[in-house]
Amino acid sequence: MPLNREPTDNGTKHSIDVTAALDKLSMDADGKHSDLPKTAAPASLWGKDAIHQFDAFDPDTGKRLSMKVTEFGEEVLAIHGAPRRTHHYKIADTLTGDFVREMWFDGDVLVRTKIIGSDNSVILSDLR
Known about the structure:
Helix content is 0%, strand content 60%. By secondary structure, it is mainly beta.
């Protein structure tokens, strides 16, 4: 899966390179090497299957994450003025708590995400 990125984190550049082997993932993040389970995935893959991915890494920094999923159940949201029945989840890194996302799915379709910024700003993103 090579994932080669040079993202920025509030102006700090990071270099991430992930390659897959038969039994593991090898990651070089900012010059530091680590091996991950072959089931680990970037935390930005917010598909319904990825919600229960407990071995993850931040694709912007390469930081390893240990994810906990909280399921809130069914909710009806107004998406662009129309009601939509969704299922609400929250994923959070149990190691530091720095990575927290809430997601609402209609079936397998992600219809809303909520991110709390480092300055406590709230970012909501709805499906178009």
